[in-house]
Each structure stands twice: as structure tokens, then as C-alpha cells.
Write a structure and sequence with these properties.
four-stranded mixed β-sheet, 10 helices
Length: 315
């Protein structure tokens, strides 16, 4: 369904988010579920980032990268959850063409930067374990800043190009079978040729998703080989520092593969299926990071428990 609004001579096209259709009877349940998840994510991500920033003992590259990844996750949650919550309270969820493209850009940019940040974290762990004598030189404060800038600016530039190409298309369909916007689903609404968009999209996926995956797998393969030659205690300590990162990497990779498949589902699929997949992708991807880093990173877990116990004692 196409809806439009005239504002000072400008005709704004609106798209219907049909992914909510299968959940109308339970929309209040999903509203409170997503609200609870969003509050939890906001609190835990902010708490861990605050601890890393405020505790001098955590001012190390590994924890700086963790803080960057959690900030990335918090921003992605904010790009999705508030709109999602308002849509569950709406009789007919709609989004303007420009707002849809904006959300799609933010979601894809932050999703891609999640992978580039994970590859930066893999580099940090690789140098720490495999080249410990060169760690201070290779992972200096200036190198950390440069790696963080690259991890955010590269996906931002590539995804901005994809969003601009999508924005030039003329739409002939106005129904998205999703809970939120993404660029590929937006492009599928076009009635013209999308060859350039599809080729550029493959280039983006190869650069900010598949290349980081290959790099992380290679890095951890080398780390595993080095650890196998070490004593049991050294091997155990190394694997404990790597385990949270590996768990988050696996979660990102599986969720991204589902997202890519989900985006390419044909229109004749039952609308409930894309909706369910959207819910699972959103919750699992955004909820996993603070849980893993809050519980599995020993130094952070200890600081969180100390802070919470201190607050409880004061109260």
C-alpha cells in the first residue's frame, strides 16, 4: 500500500512494515518483551562501558575494543528498538521512504562495523599471544585510535554508497515484510534495474563481512596453534581471554547469515516467517554482547559485581 503526505509541496512516500501482521494479537506482549530487552541492553552496555572508562586498570587495548563494540551494539539497539516499540502500539506500522533509508543505513553500518571491530579485536589477541614482545609497539594508543577509526569509517563509507544508490531508485511496491528496514529489502521494492545495487551490495558484504570473518578465523587458527605448544596454565589463560570474543564472533556470524538469507526470502513466504526471524535476529544479536562480556570476562565481571554489591550496601 502506498501512502503519501504533502508538506510544502513535497510528496513523501510511506512504506508499510508488514512484518508486524502476524503478531497483532500478541502485540502488547511483544511490546513489553522488547521494552524489557531494550532497557536491559541499555543498562548493561552503559554499565560496562562506564566501568571500562572509569577504572584505570581497564584502560588497556582489549577493554577499549570491548567498550567500542558495546557502544556499537547500544547504538544499533537504539536504531531499532524505539521504532519497533512504537510500531507494536500502532494499528498500521508505516515509515517514510527517507526514514526507512536512514534506519537501513544505520543498521547496515553498525552491523558491518561490528565485524570490523571483531577483526580488530582478533588482531589484538593475535599480537598479544603470538607476538607478545612486539605488543606495545603494534598496539600502541595511536594504533588503537587508528584501528577504531578504520573499523567505523570503512563500513560507514561503503554503506553510505549503498544507501545513496538505493535512494535513487523508483519504487513500485510499498510493502516491506519486515519489522525494520534494510537496504536489500528496500531495493527489492524497485520496479527498475537493480544490477548496480546488487553488485555494489556484494562488494560491501565481501569487504565488511566476509573478509573480517576470514581474518578472524585465520587469527584464531594461529592462536590455537601457538597455545597448543604452551603449558596448560598458559594455554588456559589465553583461551579464557579469547572465549568471550569467540562467542560474540560466532553469534555475529550466525545472525548475519540468517539476516542475509532472511532478506532474500521470496514474497510468497508466509509473512509470519520473516517476522519471527526478524525478532530472533534483533534479540539474539543485541542481547548476546552484554551478557557474554558481563559474565565471561573475568575482570569486568568482578568489577560489575563489586559495583552492584556496593550500591546495594549503600541502599
Amino acid at each position: 500500500m502506498k501512502t503519501s503526505r504533502m508538506t510544502e509541496g513535497f510528496n513523501e512516500t510511506y512504506l508499510t512494515l508488514a512484518g508486524h501482521a502476524g503478531f497483532n494479537k500478541l502485540r502488547y506482549f511483544f511490546f513489553f518483551m522488547f521494552l524489557t530487552v531494550y532497557i536491559f541492553i541499555s543498562f548493561t552496555d552503559s554499565l560496562i562501558v562506564f566501568l571500562i572508562c572509569s577504572q584505570r586498570s581497564l584502560h588497556k587495548p582489549m577493554y577499549v575494543f570491548i567498550a567500542a563494540l558495546l557502544l556499537n551494539s547500544l547504538a544499533a539497539s537504539t536504531a531499532i528498538y524505539p521504532k519497533l516499540l512504537s510500531d507494536f502500539l500502532s494499528e498500521r506500522p508505516v515509515v517514510s521512504r527517507s526514514a526507512c533509508l536512514c534506519q537501513a543505513f544505520v543498521v547496515y553500518f553498525l552491523g558491518g562495523s561490528g565485524f570490523t571491530l571483531l577483526s580488530v579485536m582478533a588482531f589484538d589477541r593475535y599480537v598479544s599471544i603470538c607476538e607478545p614482545l612486539r605488543y606495545a609497539a603494534l598496539v600502541s594508543p595511536s594504533a588503537v585510535a587508528a584501528l577504531l577509526l578504520l573499523a567505523w569509517l570503512l563500513p560507514a563509507g561503503l554503506v553510505a554508497g549503498a544507501a545513496l544508490l538505493a535512494g535513487r531508485l523508483q519504487l513500485c511496491r510499498f510493502r516491506l515484510d519486515r519489522l525494520y528496514c534494510n537496504i536489500y529489502s528496500f531495493v527489492k521494492l524497485s520496479c527498475g534495474s537493480t544490477l548496480v545495487n546488487n553488485v555494489y551490495g556484494l562488494l560491501c558484504n565481501a569487504t565488511i563481512v566476509f573478509l573480517p570473518i576470514v581474518f578472524v578465523v585465520f587469527s584464531y587458527g594461529r592462536i590455537l596453534l601457538v597455545c597448543m605448544r604452551q603449558s596448560g596454565s598458559v594455554r588456559g589463560k589465553a583461551m579464557r581471554t579469547c572465549l568471550p570474543h569467540l562467542l560474540v564472533f560466532i553469534n555475529y556470524s550466525i545472525s548475519t547469515m540468517f539476516e542475509l538469507v532472511h532478506s532474500r526470502l521470496q514474497a510468497d513466504v508466509d509473512a509470519v516467517v520473516p517476522g519471527v526471524m526478524s525478532i530472533l535476529i534483533v534479540i539474539i544479536t543485541t542481547l548476546f554482547n552484554p551478557v557474554v562480556y558481563g559474565l565471561k570476562t573475568q575482570e569486568i565481571s568482578k568489577r560489575v559485581k563489586k559495583l552492584l554489591c556496593y550500591r546495594r550496601t549503600e541502599g
